[in-house]
Every structure is written in structure tokens, then in C-alpha cells.
Amino acid sequence: MSINLKAVIARLAAGETLSADDAEATFGVIMSGEATPAQIAGILMAMRVRGETVPEMTGAVRAMRARMVRVEAPPGAIDVCGTGGDGAGTLNVSTAVTFVLAGLGVPVAKHGNRALSSRTGGADVLGALGVNVDVPVERLPAILRTANCAFLFAPRHHAALRHAAGPRVELGTRTLFNLLGPMANPAGVTRQLTGVFDPGWARPMVEALASLGTEACWLVHGQGLDELTIAGENRVVELKDGAIRSFTVLPEDAGLERAPISAIQGGDATVNAAALGALLRGAPGAYRDTVLLNAAAALIVAGRVGDLREGASLAASALDSGAALEALETLRRETA
């Protein structure tokens, strides 16, 4: 479907919104390298100022998925990731959760990147742990089957986004692109635990995911973090059995004690990798409990447990038995 970007910009400037089909066509032109930097910036900022809609988000994700390098995943695969953008600089939670789930036999197609808004991204800490995140893409399905987890390095799967990179950097502010990554997993997972930097985006993202075929998901925000926290109340928007509902969860719901966010303050890749390694070897503390809470939520989304307390107990067993550590060691070996 072709579309005239000048006409689109005129519509957006007048305050109009785009249908999902028009948004897909618009972002298809952008991701195909056929839009000028000025046109890209104009479209992104017109949407940002007016407020991006669910159909616009849905269409943009369709365009992104149509151009991504796909990876075959086993049935029941899940993704655990965040939008980034919380600026908190915490230890790597979703990466640790990946190994807990893998140790329990839940396949995880972990979509991630290097540090963008944080000090240490998933790719950074995995590299410091000896995992090769640049393994040839064609090997990823076999790695995922053998290790029950694989890291899908976003830039290699979404090369089409490079066409918008310049305008995004020059704008220097959040645009719709910041929300698209977690909704375009290269393995096409239909279950995911996703953290969001702004709780106001949780429901729109869930509505878009529902229209795109997602079976089950939790979009979460905890005390300013794009993940669940043991520091206090967490906000959740859930998709389950076609229904969307909002609720809050507390660390006590999983049988966990509270601790301040400062207790999981991270550092560079070496620091975060050391903490993650210690966690997988049984280290107690706030980092472990934060990972248990997020893993419990992921196990609910994966359909493995019925509540957070059961999930936290099962997640603890993966750490205490060494199964989570074995998942890391297997991934390291398979990506060598």
C-alpha cells in the first residue's frame, strides 16, 4: 500500500489520527528508507504532541514486523523485556529472569539491546558473562531449543530502523519508536512480560498487542521502573483469555520483603555481570527477591503457575538447584 507522506503530514498537522492501515503504510515508507529526515521528524513529533493512538501504534508494529529478520521459536516461548527509559541504572533484572525461566524449561526468546537509556543493557551484561550476542542469526533457533533461551540482538533483527535513527537522535525526545521494540519480538512470541517506563502507556500497548495476536501478557511499571519492584506497589495491565484488566501487586503478594530501589543499584557491565553471576550461584538479597517477583509474573504469563507466591517459590527452586546457572552455562557454550 503506497501513501503520500506530504498528505499524511498535513493530516497530522490538522490534528487527525491515522488508521492502522495508514500508519502501517506510513511507517513502511519510513522503514524502507524512502522518507526524508524532515518528513520523519515531522510525522514523529506531530504524533507525539497530539498523542499517539492504539491504531497508529498497531500499524507501526505491523510495518516493523514485516521487515524484521525472524527466528523460529518453540511453542510456548515467552519474552521478558522492557521499554527502557526509566533512567534508574539498576542491575539487569529481565536478563536474570531469562535464566530462571530457562532453568524451569520455559523457552525465552529474549529481545534486547546494548545500553541506550541505562548504564548496562542486556547485550552488555551477557557479553561480560561470556555469551556471544553476535552469533549468526541462523544458529539462534537451535540455541533456543538447546539452552531454552537465546538473545535476539535488536539491531540485527530490525535493520530497517536505521532509516529513522538520525531524526530520532536529533529530536532527542521520546517518539513512537521507543514503544515499538517490545512489541516486535523477532521470534513472534505470543506471551510476554514487558516493563514500561510510563504506566500511562501500559494499556495502549496491551490493546495493540491484543490486536496483533498476543495470547497473554503483563505490562508492568513499578515505582518509576520498567519492571516490577519490591520497593512498593506495582501497576499491571494484563491480557488473558482475550480480556484486559488492570490491577496492582505488592512484593508481599509473592511472599517477599520490601527493599528500596537503591538496593539494586547497578554499575557498568562488569559490575552487573558479577552481581548476576552471584545471584545464579545463590546469593541472597534484594536483587534475588526482585528477580523472583518478576520471574513469578513471567511464570503466570507463561501459564506455569496460578499466582505470584507459587511463581516465586518455583523461581527460587531454579536458583537454589543450580538450574538457572546451568541455563547460563549452556547458553555460553552454545554461542561460543
TrEMBL record:
GO cellular component: cytosol
Assigned keywords, A-Z: Amino-acid biosynthesis, Aromatic amino acid biosynthesis, Glycosyltransferase, Magnesium, Metal-binding, Transferase, Tryptophan biosynthesis
GO biological process: L-tryptophan biosynthetic process
Reactions the enzyme catalyzes: N-(5-phospho-beta-D-ribosyl)anthranilate + diphosphate = 5-phospho-alpha-D-ribose 1-diphosphate + anthranilate
Keyword Transcription regulation: no
A GO term, aspect molecular function: magnesium ion binding
NCBIfam families: trpD
Job description of the protein: Catalyzes the transfer of the phosphoribosyl group of 5-phosphorylribose-1-pyrophosphate (PRPP) to anthranilate to yield N-(5'-phosphoribosyl)-anthranilate (PRA).
Name of this chain's protein: Anthranilate phosphoribosyltransferase
Gene expressing this chain: trpD
